[in-house]
Amino acid sequence: MKFFDEARIEVIAGNGGDGSASFRREKYVPRGGPDGGDGGRGGSIYAVADANLNTLIDYRYTRIFRAKSGENGRGRDQYGKGADDIVLRVPVGTVIRDAESGETLADLAKDGERALLARGGKGGIGNIHFKSSTNRAPRQFTRGEQGETRNLEMELRVLADVGLLGMPNAGKSTLIRAVSSARPKVADYPFTTLQPNLGVVRVDVNRSFVMADIPGLIEGAAEGAGLGHQFLRHLQRTKLLLHLVDMAPFDASADPAREVRAIASELRKYDPALARKPRWLVFNKADLLDPAEAKRRATALAKKLRWTKPWFVVSAIKSEGTRELAFAVMELLESKRR
């Protein structure tokens, strides 16, 4: 199934039915009085988070959702039938905004959460409600209300505790394969990953966290270079970012420290709040170097970057150092839950 994390739709709630102006007409009941019933309520449109969905593809091609209107009231005290509501099922983590005002209508972060997107119109009132001691033959009634109409933007942000970021071919997909059962595509060319991948990392019985791997980020992403910023939204719910750095690049002219700074700059351009999230450096591909040289390079890079936060040296392809990294991440997440 294709992965779609954005969609634009139009929702049109149903109109309320009109009230009725009617009078009782029977052979042996002279001046029977008003008997016009109320109109029915128009159908509303709701969104519900469903853990069984993981893409917005259902809203990629079907763009308009229209609820039915309520029935009009009728004579003989007959009230119009209300229209059925429409329920749109979306993946957990979907954010829904009004396309015109930008207002966030719903952030469905839990399975089963429900949000009203467009309210159906109320039914009109029949003349039966206008009778009184001084108005015994009322002809007044009201029309049903118009249902709400909205243009909406839907955006999926995956739910993960930890997010991986780094340049293309830094080894993000290899790392998530090493620590979880996720099996994203791995190849020796840039931008192998074209959509987010989630993996559950189990460090012990009843101790686990969810890791998200997103496509690589490069300098100039804010201007559309590479795959741009479109996947950074999937890191906004994370509690920790693991920044993978290729410490043994094939290109001798590559500067890992410059690349780290470039990605940090892209994070700030996209969302300052995302750039302020805890971020650890993970120096990857240590298997391509002598252990002492790998340690020396990592220390030199951390010093060059003036890095004071945690950093790790790993070989994702050989699963060396990944267990220690997973335990350190787990301890941090548990400390945040306390």
What does this structure look like?
It contains 6 helices and 14 strands. The protein is an alpha/beta fold. The strands form 3 sheets. The chain has a 6-stranded mixed beta sheet with strand order 10-11-9-12-13-14, sandwiched between helices. A 5-stranded mixed beta sheet has the order 3-1-8-5-6, with no helix packed on it. It has a 3-stranded mixed beta sheet with strand order 4-2-7, with no helix packed on it. β5 and β6 form a beta hairpin.
Task: Please summarize what this structure is.
The chain is built from 6 helices and 14 strands. It is of the alpha/beta class and 338 residues long.
Distance between the termini: 38 Å
Mean pLDDT: 86
Q: SSE string, helix = H, strand = E?
A: EEHEEEEEEEHEEEHHEHEH
Please outline the major beta sheet: 6 strands, mixed
Low-confidence regions: 187-194
Spatial sequence of strands, sheet with the most strands: 10-11-9-12-13-14
Overall morphology: rod-shaped
In helices, the fraction of residues equals: 10-25%
Q: What structural class do the secondary elements suggest? A: alpha/beta
Radius of gyration: 29 Å
SSE layout and pairings?
Elements: E1 6-12, E2 45-50, H1 58-61, E3 64-66, E4 86-91, E5 94-98, E6 104-108, E7 114-118, E8 149-156, E9 162-166, H2 172-179, E10 197-204, E11 207-213, E12 240-246, H3 256-270, H4 272-275, E13 279-284, H5 291-304, E14 311-313, H6 322-337
Parallel strand pairs: 1-3, 2-4, 9-11, 9-12, 12-13, 13-14
Antiparallel strand pairs: 1-8, 2-7, 5-6, 5-8, 10-11
